Amino acid sequence: xxxxxxxxxxxxxxxxAYALTLRQLASEILLIDIDKDRAKGEAMDIxxxxxxxxxxxxxxxxxxxxxxxxxxxxxxxxxxxxxxxRLDLVKTNVGIMKSIIPEITKAAPNALFIIVANPVDILTxxxxxxxxxxxxxxxxxxxxxxxxxxxxRIAETYRVGQENVHGYVFGEHGDSSFVPWxxxxxxxxxxxxxxxxxxxxxxxxxxxxxVEDYIRKSGGIIIAAKKATNYGIGVTVTSLIEALNYDxxxxxxxxxxxxxxxxxxxxxxxxxLIVNAKGITSHLEPKITDDEVEKLRHSAQCLKDVISQVxxxx
Length: 314
What we know:
Largest sheet: 6 strands, parallel
Strand order of the largest sheet: 3-2-1-4-5-6
Number of helices: 9
Number of strands: 12
Radius of gyration: 19 Å
Shape: globular
Helix content: 40-55%
């Protein structure tokens, strides 16, 4: 029995529910949304496809129905409106999370909690500070999607299988994120050396700044084109849940509470973590360059500046 509750049945929440159903990663999926008709419709639509997939019960309900959930995914929040400041958006979504925390922690106090709503690092920090849930059971989706975008871009450049590209995006899921290039490789060959290692160049060379710009702007480009991002994050969160279903350790870049790593304290951002069925078991500090450490500390400070402006709303 593996019960997963998803709070928020919009584009992201419903796509996660659908991907989980396709991958057969839950026996029960509960959708909760302030728009009860939307949650009911999404759940019914997904459930009616299960005769061709497997025995998954997908349904809509209330917080009280989340009892005994193994994993809770929180996607609730609003997108940024034209003319709205980033700070106003943060305050709005902090307010939404503030209303969710007591309801879901009462219903499912023993669950693993995955925060997906944006700004994910701020909301993960809020959840850690206000929920009473142990830190190791609170995970933000963080830069896991950014990392996927990075690997997809490098794979596209050199026309190699995405699974051959290794590397990460550290820091905030936002403007201050960065790629620690010292850790990036293609099939164990450093990315900087890959082109010269080929007898015949298969792809164009790339500019590191352009790659990082692509990662940061991808979400905005997709939203401008189709009004929402849902497939990439849907698959990303589903892969995280798959990792949490097993006792085998997985290394992922997720947002979590940082307490001393790289000289950073009291903030949530993404560095490599070891996760398994117990949640977070270890924070890793792979050796990166001094410049990359400074970029990570800058990202942490950017987040702390926002937190200081909204802390009263927590």
